[in-house]
Amino acid sequence: MPLYLVGGPVRDMLLGRTSADLDLVVEGDATRLATEVAQDLAAEVVTHRRFGTATIKVDQQRLDLATARHETYSRPGALPKVTPGSINEDLRRRDFTINAMALGLSDPRTGELLDPLAGTADLEQGLIRVMHPGSFRDDATRIFRAVRYEQRLSFRLEPDTQRYLTQALDEGMLATVSADRLRRELGLMLSEEQPLQALMRAGNLGVLRSLYRPLGNASWLGSFSQSRERTQPLVLVAALAYPLTPNEGEAFISRLNMPSRWAAVVRDLTQLKVLQDSLAAPQLSSSSLYHLLEGRSIASISALLHLTPSPVTQERLTNYLEHLRYVRPVLRGKDLVSLGVPQGPKVGQVLRQLKDARLEGRVTTRREEADLALKCLAAREG
Q1: Residue 293: pLDDT above 50?
Q2: Residues 225 and 301 in one domain
Q3: Residue 14 lies in a domain
Q4: Which among 146, 287, 357, 369 is placed 20 to 30 Å from 62, CA to CA?
Q5: Is 160 a member of any domain?
Q6: 34-39: which pairs have CB atoms within 8 A and are 24 or more residues apart?
Q7: Using one digit for the tens of pLDDT, what is the confidence trace for 241-270?
Q8: Helices 179-190/233-240 angle, 10° precision
Q9: Is residue 382's pLDDT more than 60?
Q10: Residue 308 sits in the same domain as residue 349
Q11: What is the value of pTM for the model shown?
Q12: Domain check: are 376 and 293 in the same one?
């Protein structure tokens, strides 16, 4: 069975970049071949016979094996109908010319580079080019991939390709794709080495507006550009929700069928934005600040730190992230019981008072905590 290395690994090899995974295509039954190889290697194998694909996992290595195939789309956004085909048909069904190359790994084509759509020329010119005008209509997730590859490789969209992309957005093609597939593509964008640049480019192209209209061009994300560290994906998920009301945040969560972690940071961010006046209020005590932020996700607080226009709020959020959230009383529940505090709810009440005192600097030692606990106990008994 003729075997080929295809797609991203070939592209990256020609660019002198490392590639984490190996994508192989066989003109034959890939699932059968993968099963036999996995047995020889004592490896795990996952097959998808509908698509003629299989994944072999050996330790931390992953090998993707697919039957060379031809695809047709019954409607925009639908999963393709797959039939076995030749390697040339397989390459012509792909998303971009730079991913439509193959390297022969078996005789008689060992070492031969197959490049039927001039992908090497586009690599040399730094262009992202689709295979045909209807590519983004067939599968609108390619819109996200075009942006990802453009930013990852420091390439640019070929002019016609950018025009096709804009037309697909104007025609509402993202609405043809399921929420789960859209969320996956957004997650892949957030996992890039430079996710902020990809998001900003997606905003400028109108991708985010088409994904969920209130996102607009996401220009507020520019506030992160001065950060020297890579922004974590969850922080960017929260940041996307910055202009949204709590109700719009819920609609955004529903639009992408967000998992619990994503949904939590979106909810926290929209609620924290409502509290911005309180967070910037004069004479806000450290304990009051702590209770305003207590239980909120660190990702949402970090996002607000970058996005709030208030220097006072920025200072207070930094204080919480770097100091206040770690403050704990030295005394524990058993220590309070030994001092005479009755077991039960009163222990928790006294611990909260001790924590507030610690936050405000009214106690700094174990002895001072014990004295305050006894005062609290005496006050309650009195």
Answers
A1: yes
A2: yes
A3: no
A4: 146
A5: no
A6: 34/65, 37/65
A7: 999 999 999 999 999 999 999 999 999 999
A8: 120
A9: no
A10: no
A11: 0.87
A12: no
Question: Which of 311, 326, 341 finishes a domain?
Answer: 326
Rounded-to-integer distance, Cα 241 and Cα 100, Å: 36
Q: Which two tokens stand for residue 367?
A: 């002895």
| Spatial contact of 193 and 152, defined as CB atoms under 8 Å apart | yes
- Tell me the sheet residues that pair with 6: 102
As for how many domains the chain has, the answer is 2
The answer to whether residues 213 and 230 touch, using CB atoms and an 8 Å cutoff, is: no
Domain of 347, in residue numbers: 333-381
Q: What angle do CA 336, 341, 346 make, to 5 degrees?
A: 100
Q: Are 74 and 81 in contact (CB under 8 A)?
A: yes
**Strand, helix or coil for residue 113:** strand
Same domain, 269 and 345: no
| Residue type (1 letter), 32 | R
With 90 as the cut, is the pLDDT of residue 88 above it?
Answer: yes
Using a 10 angstrom Cβ sphere, with 0-12 exposed, 13-18 middle and 19 or more buried, the burial of residue 124 is exposed
Answer yes or no: is 107 within a domain. no
**Tens digits of residue pLDDT in 360-373:** 999 999 999 899 98
Query: Do 349 and 311 share a structural domain?
Result: no
Of the pLDDT bands very low, low, confident and very high (cuts 50, 70, 90), residue 203 is very high
Query: 133 φ, ψ to 5°?
Result: -60, -30
**What is the overall mean pLDDT for the chain?**
92
Minimal CA–CA distance to 202: which of 236, 278, 151?
151
Per the CB < 8 A criterion, the answer to whether 162 and 129 are in contact is: no
Sign of the dihedral through C-alpha 265, 267, 268, 274: positive
Q: In this structure, is residue 77 part of a structural domain?
A: no
